[in-house]
Design a protein that fits this description.
The chain contains 21 helices and 7 strands. The protein is α/β, with parallel strands linked by helices. It is globular, with a radius of gyration of 24 Å.
């Protein structure tokens, strides 16, 4: 088999470029701001208070594990191309099985993904893994010359589906695509040759999205992924620690069997990644948009996805990650700390909203002064973190990717704080959550999903009015400013969320849904699918 190796690989180099020096200086300044933030706890005997001690421990863990570790990954992006693959052969005799997983999605979507998988350059066998056993899909697979696999029952969802297919196939390399992702014909050419290094257990290709134009939620959701799929994942690759993300991934069958197959759970891809790295297998990141897919285009789908992901990641953080931690390299430890703590942003947001409301209405001069002083220590860190993340994304995003402005992403993630907070407490108290694929159709959302955000929004406004007009104590301007920032972000989120409520928005009619499907197919560049389906 022949696959052209078209990616240039550079040798190790000294960190001397302007961007490297600038990045290092910014991180050093960020560390000073982080230390200044931590210093707040060491004044006025604050660490004698039990609740402040708990808060300090959480601040240390989050500050080091999410903020500082992310900065370190940004610096490591400069080493992302330093691994020497130049000695690898340009040809490979590895056999390839391509798995396209389906579970009741739109027929046209399944057809387009399956067709694209079948048309990949290079020898391979494409399989449609249908978890519902639909006869129409069996016929579709035969029409495209793909294999068709189904199973009895639906145990362990995607992981069970993949594991059942492993028993009926024999390819050396397993390529997995979620049903909404459309691989480019050159997907295998750009990736498969890395497996000539026998230590490589899996390859993760950058996920990108093609439906950004499907509304505010879709655009914001796509932007929320830019940081992780660009500078963060490149930094992980620089440390030989990129994590598996599910779709657009290639796994060596031997490595997968070495860990007992695809791992089950709500975050099955991350669980599989943890086990592969713990077993000593290495990973590679291919930072090219080779298989664009779909992001949630409505709040109901977004909340469903984020609740499942956050609940699954938190469960792994509290269980498997702790057990496997000693087996990871130092780079892998940093990568998984960043990934498993990212959804704590919801809890952090909730805590700061609650504190702001409390001290807007509080008559305790000591409490208000303490919170004002806390904000004085927080703002430099928040500014430093924002600047570092913004510049890292500007420097390390893929050239064809736009939307570097993160305002929509900030509003969407900020407005999702109740979902992330709920997921954390569900993980803490072991409250189960049924596995559900991310919905691919647009739909309204029930009002109770927005009740916490609306309540916080109104209380913040009420607190500002009370402090400015009715309270007898002096105005704490930092607290007012912090509240106004939260009000503006909440307003931005709610303004674009209200049209999604079920009493204003019903599910899209068939004509609208067909329009989305046609735009989706057009983006993939296919001219044969419509004719094949009509035939």
């Amino acid at each position: 088999m022949y696959y052209d190796k078209k990616m240039k690989v550079t040798q190790n180099k000294l960190w001397t470029s302007t961007s490297e020096i600038r990045g290092l200086l910014l991180v050093i300044l960020g560390i000073f701001s982080l230390a200044f933030f931590f210093s707040w706890w060491f004044t006025n005997s604050r660490l004698t208070n039990t609740w402040l001690v708990v808060a300090f421990i959480f601040a240390i863990v989050y500050g080091l594990g999410q903020i500082l570790a992310s900065w370190f990954l940004y610096l490591a992006t400069h080493q992302a191309n330093s691994r020497n693959f130049s000695n690898l052969s340009k040809t490979t005799n590895l056999t390839v099985d391509v798995f396209v997983t389906a579970c009741g999605e739109d027929f046209k979507m399944i057809a387009r993904s399956l067709e694209a998988a079948c048309e990949l350059n290079g020898p391979h066998k494409t399989w449609l893994l249908d978890d519902l056993g639909d006869p129409a899909l069996e016929s579709l697979a035969a029409q495209f010359g793909a294999g068709y696999l189904t199973r009895d029952g639906h145990e362990n969802a995607k992981a069970g589906n993949v594991n059942a297919a492993l028993e009926k196939t024999d390819g050396d390399i397993i390529v997995i695509f979620d049903i909404d992702h459309i691989p480019s014909p050159k997907f295998l050419e750009r990736t498969i040759w890395h497996f000539e290094d026998p230590s490589v257990g899996f390859i993760q290709v950058m996920p990108t999205f093609s439906n950004n134009a499907d509304g505010w939620v879709a655009q914001a959701a796509a932007e929320t992924s830019l940081d992780f799929y660009n500078p963060t994942s490149k930094g992980m690759d620089g440390l030989r620690s990129v994590t598996k993300m599910g779709t657009n991934s290639l796994i060596r069958r031997k490595a997968l069997l070495d860990i007992g197959g695809y791992q089950s759970g709500l975050a099955e891809d991350l669980a599989t990644s943890l086990n592969l790295h713990a077993k000593g297998w290495e990973s590679v990141y291919v930072a090219e948009p080779l298989a664009p897919g779909l992001v949630p285009s409505d709040l109901a789908s977004w909340f469903t996805q984020q609740l499942k992901w956050a609940r699954g990641v938190f469960e792994l953080l509290l269980t498997k990650f702790v057990v496997l931690f000693p087996k990871f390299s130092w780079g892998q430890k940093i990568a998984y700390i960043v990934r498993t703590t990212k959804y704590w942003i919801g809890l952090v947001t909730f805590i700061h909203i609650a504190l702001t409301i409390v001290f807007l209405f509080s008559n305790s001069s000591i409490g208000r002064a303490g919170f004002e002083n806390y904000l004085l220590h927080l703002f430099p860190l928040a500014i430093a973190d924002s600047i570092i993340r913004m510049l890292a994304l500007r420097r390390w995003h893929y050239p064809s990717i736009e939307a570097i402005n993160q305002r929509r992403a900030v509003a969407l993630v900020y407005g999702t704080w109740p979902v992330y907070t709920l997921a954390w407490f569900m993980a803490i108290f072991r409250i189960p959550l049924r596995f559900r694929p991310t919905p691919k159709d647009n739909g309204g959302i029930r009002g109770y999903w927005l009740a916490p955000q609306i309540l916080a929004f109104l209380l913040l406004i009420g607190g500002v009015i009370y402090t400015m007009t009715l309270a007898s104590h002096p105005i704490n301007w930092l607290t007012i400013g912090f509240a106004l920032i939260q009000i503006m972000i909440h307003f931005n989120f709610l303004w674009f969320s209200f049209p999604s409520l079920t009493f204003w928005s019903k599910r899209l009619q068939n004509s609208d849904q067909n329009d989305i499907s046609e735009r989706y197919l057009h983006a993939s560049g296919s001219s044969t699918l419509t004719q094949r389906i009509s035939d």
